[in-house]
């Protein structure tokens, strides 16, 4: 079994970004600048935004966090988006999801200038992605594509089963894997909560991409011997083996599935770090396009 090490791969990508940013600065070109908008005090969102800021600092990308209270109105947030759209110093920004319930997330996403939409969630970027045109790809699916590429995992003609159809992971993942690209060219089945005979479908998969949001949903009996298993899920569960009293697990029962899989991503240290690396790549891409 080969462990697909997202931590190591993301470190390699960040190193490449760092060199590119250093070259820009050497040539008197301003470093890329990423902003993150955080509304409310959701602990997971705070952790993600802090991790993104730290990653920016490590590669020389300038980062700014805009923090707003839980009570921020939709109108106020739209004004913030408008301000960031028009900030000439800024190459890209993200609005950390989820937003408080009284704010229409889709409305906010659609207000972001697609040229600064480094999360790749704006319909313009989603549409361009679906057509295989140049765009900002959504970070998590793009991070997975990058891992498949760097680990030389064959995808052409393979059966790929994506479990989960969210707009940020499952759905774009299925599009990217079915495109005429390498990696890609796979025969993709997109499964979701209404899928019948899910176990039979997963059993046929050469590549399983689990983005369900259900701890240890994928068990060893479901997976074909020699499959590649990509675990997108992140769950914080109680543990008496760690100092913090918690540990992170995924949508895949790693200990058992890893005995059958040829390639597998761990949680933590798999897809998560790659998501951040992809966001940095999009920010660098935006900066290069603008300079
Ligand atoms: P989501 O809740 O938006 O979507 C879950 C999908 O799973 C839905 O499409 C649903 O139809 C499907 N599903 C639910 N129950 C199912 C079942 N019994 N059988 C088949 N399909 C079922 O979740 P999401 O935003 O796509 O995230 C999924 C997981 O990935 C979560 O644990 C999330 O925390 C994690 N995540 C991780 C990263 C990362 O960087 N590692 C990024 C985004 C999300």
Low-confidence region ranges = none
| SSE succession | EHEHEHEHHHEHEHEEEEHEH
Gyration radius from CA atoms, angstroms: 19 Å
Q: What is the mean pLDDT?
A: 97
Please write the CATH class name of the largest domain: Alpha Beta
Task: Provide the CATH superfamily of the largest domain.
Answer: NAD(P)-binding Rossmann-like Domain
The overall strand count is 11
What is the percentage of strand-forming residues?
Answer: 15-25%
Distance between the termini: 44 Å
Helical coverage, percent range: 25-40%
Order of strands across the biggest sheet?
A: 1-11-8-7-5-6
- How many alpha or pi helices? 10
Instruction: Please describe the biggest sheet, giving its number of strands, its sense, and whether it closes into a barrel.
Output: 6 strands, parallel
Short description:
Helix content is 40%, strand content 16%.
SSE diagram, text form:
Blueprint: E1 2-3, H1 6-26, E2 33-39, H2 43-59, E3 62-68, H3 74-85, E4 92-95, H4 105-111, H5 123-130, H6 139-150, E5 159-163, H7 170-178, E6 187-191, H8 198-203, E7 207-210, E8 228-231, E9 235-238, E10 246-249, H9 254-257, E11 263-264, H10 271-290
Parallel strand pairs: 1-11, 2-3, 2-4, 5-6, 5-7, 7-8, 8-11
Antiparallel strand pairs: 9-10
Features:
3-stranded parallel beta sheet; binds nicotinamide-adenine-dinucleotide; Rossmann fold; 6-stranded parallel beta sheet; globular; alpha/beta; 2 domains; 11 strands; 16% strand
What does this structure look like?
- The chain is α/β, with parallel strands linked by helices and 291 residues long.
- It folds into two domains: 28-113, Rossmann fold (3-Layer(aba) Sandwich), CATH 3.40.50.10860; 139-272, Rossmann fold.
- It has ten helices and eleven strands.
- The chain has a six-stranded parallel β-sheet. The protein has a three-stranded parallel β-sheet with strand order 3-2-4, covered by helices on one side. A two-stranded antiparallel sheet has the order 9-10.
- α1 (6-26) packs parallel to α10 and α2 crosses α10 (271-290).
- Nicotinamide-adenine-dinucleotide binds next to α10.
């Amino acid at each position: 079994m080969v462990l697909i090490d997202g931590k190591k791969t993301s470190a390699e990508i960040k190193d490449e970004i760092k060199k590119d940013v250093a070259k820009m600065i050497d040539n008197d070109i301003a470093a890329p600048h990423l902003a993150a908008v955080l509304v409310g005090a959701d602990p997971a969102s705070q952790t993600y935004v802090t991790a993104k800021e730290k990653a920016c600092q490590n590669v020389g990308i300038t980062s700014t966090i805009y923090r707003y209270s839980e009570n921020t109105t939709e109108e106020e947030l739209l004004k913030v988006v408008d301000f960031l759209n028009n900030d000439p110093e800024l190459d890209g920004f993200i609005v950390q999801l989820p937003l408080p319930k009284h704010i229409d997330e889709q409305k906010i996403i659609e207000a972001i200038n697609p040229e600064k939409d480094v999360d790749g969630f704006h319909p313009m970027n989603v549409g361009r992605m679906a057509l295989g045109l140049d765009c900002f790809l959504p970070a998590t699916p793009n991070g997975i594509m990058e891992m498949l590429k760097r680990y030389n995992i064959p995808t052409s003609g393979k059966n790929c089963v994506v479990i989960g159809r969210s707009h940020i992971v499952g759905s774009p993942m299925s599009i990217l894997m079915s495109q005429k690209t390498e990696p890609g060219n796979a025969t993709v089945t997109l499964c979701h909560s209404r899928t019948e005979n899910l176990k039979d479908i997963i059993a046929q998969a050469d590549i399983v991409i689990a983005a369900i949001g259900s701890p240890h949903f994928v068990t060893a009996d479901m997976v074909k011997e020699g499959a590649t298993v990509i675990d997108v899920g992140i769950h914080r569960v109680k543990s008496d083996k760690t100092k913090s009293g918690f540990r992170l697990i995924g949508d895949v029962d790693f200990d058992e599935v890893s005995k059958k899989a040829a390639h597998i991503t761990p949680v933590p240290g798999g897809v998560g770090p790659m998501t951040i690396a992809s966001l940095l790549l999009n920010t660098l891409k935006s900066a290069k396009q603008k300079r």
